[in-house]
Amino acid sequence: MVLWSYMETLKVQMEDPEAKKFREKAMKIYGHSKGSISKAMNSAIRTWLDKTEGKRGRLKAKEIRGLLAGLKDSSLMAQRKSAKMMGSPD
Prior knowledge:
It is elongated, with a radius of gyration of 21 Å. Helix 1 packs across helix 2 (36-55). The protein is mainly α. Helices cover 56% and strands 0% of the residues. The relative contact order is 0.06. The protein has a domain at 16-58 and 71-85.
């Protein structure tokens, strides 16, 4: 549970067609009230952060299921190979 939440203002520059499309979509989803653009931007940023986190090798448990089926190496050897593939020194 988050007790304190600090807000920060970010200034974003976008090409005009994308900005208009974003604004229209945000208001369609979140309504024409104050804060709809901020809600849409927060959602977009959260989605982008989740997507880029996965690119750094962080997988959720449900994404790993089945990946190790048929593995012939020992768990230690598999760990060393995966660390080598990720660029970690041995």
